[in-house]
Amino acid sequence: MRNKKILALLVLVVCIVYANSLSSGFVWDDKPLIVQKQLLFSHPSNAARILILSDAPLELKTPYYRPLNTLTYMLDHYLWGLHPFWYHLENVLLHVLVVIVFYLLLMEVFGDGKLAFIAAALFAVYPVNAEAVDFISARNTLLCALFSMASFLFLAKGKKVLPLLAYFLALLSEEPAVVLPFFLLSMELTGGLSSGGNGPKIKKSVLAVFFGVTAVYFIIRYLVFGTFIARHGIMFSQRRLKLITAVYFEHFRLMLYPFILNADYTMKQISFSYFKSIAAACGVFLLLYLSLRKKTPAPVRAGAQWIFWGLLPVSNIVKIPSAPVAERFQYMIVFGFVLIAGHFLSGLQKRKALAGYAVFFVLVLALGFRTFERNFIWKDDVSLYSSMIKSDPENSMAHYDLGNVYERHAELENAVLEFRTALAIDPYNVNSLVDIGVAFAEEGRLDDAIGEFKTALDLDPKNIMAMSDIGMAYEKEGLFKEAAAEFQNVLRLAPGDTASIGCLDKIKKRTGKQ
Prior knowledge:
Blueprint (H helix, E strand, L loop, with lengths): L1 H17 L11 H4 L4 H5 L4 H4 L16 H14 L3 H27 L2 H13 L4 H5 L4 H18 L5 H10 L7 H11 L14 H22 L12 H19 L17 H19 L5 H14 L18 H22 L1 H23 L5 H11 L4 H13 L3 H14 L4 H13 L3 H14 L4 H13 L3 H14 L4 H16 L1
Helix pairs in contact: 1-6, 1-7, 6-7, 6-9, 7-16, 7-17, 9-10, 10-12, 11-15, 13-14, 13-16, 14-15, 15-16, 16-17, 18-19, 19-20, 19-21, 20-21, 21-22, 21-23, 22-23, 23-24, 24-25
């Protein structure tokens, strides 16, 4: 009965903190990953095709193999169409399930109700988790965490098949799940799972099967992509090592102080410094020390080892195509941090009850409020890109993306202003020049538009978008010969471009009549 009340309280906390996320729409990568895949999702027969596709926009190929995540979007499309409320509700419910499974896992392994509740409550409201919950396209992270924790829970309960099945589903959700067998192995080697808790000893044969499932997963990846990991593989150049130390520092910062947040961390924000490299090295050393020290309490050892292994997939040892650092990458790692925090807070409560409860209450209130506040930036594209610019005014791509949003909303003056700002920050942002031209063309300022397109082509002579747009501008001005030349240039670079073929046919008909 007590467990049921605690679980109900945890569910209530999540619902309160994330209630304002349900009114958000599709933002950022939700458009290419969900909205623009309507045709794919509309036919159930395409479910088999999804098993051999990367989790990316249809026109791109990435090393992301997350078919289970994409299948959930197909199911959502079948049930709800493109109503974002239900997609967001599903993300919140998945977060609820993760919190519940995490609590049950800690109860099963350590048998300490206070520790389990404190850690689960902190995880429920931790601000860096907001991105994984609010951003529909980050659902892969929620699924990965859910099945990873479920696999561990089934294993702790002595189940045989369910841990392996849950682990395989975690792998089909997101790549960081591969750390689970390594974590289990390291915990067994250091006696961490059973020492001081109720966790069972894991047989070597069971661990071998976990690694076997991992091998099967990588074979499937190879059959789908022709490579086991990313195209560039593991690299240790001086430049990459500097990036890795900066990334480690940023992850430690986000873990320890999750209040200064940004949805898009630019290279300027995560640039290398000797201070960052020293701090990152100290953080890694501390994790190893806590993991290997014999007197380390079991929850602290487990938390330190989970953080250590969890950081490896997001360290950029293997380059991450989407972004070097993102808050959603923290979701899996935070399990370890809140477990360590839960251990010390539960100890404080046992020694000094009033002080312990006060610290816990203030933490949950402060973290929960920051998360609630953070949810608002995911409401729509304007609020999202504006938040990126507020966090980093020199973010050229955020200005460019915000300009595109204004252009779609026919707020052309605001759009041009954002494109000009993007260009001032990055003079080689050719797409900004092209889109300024498009905005001028929509206002009927064709000569100004052509001028922008020509400047873009001076910077990038093979920019198909600029060629196509200048061709359409020439056509509107009645300069059919110049227009035809631009469309022919497009077809030389992209022979199958149907839009250019259609424009050429139209020009031929018009000039033929003349």
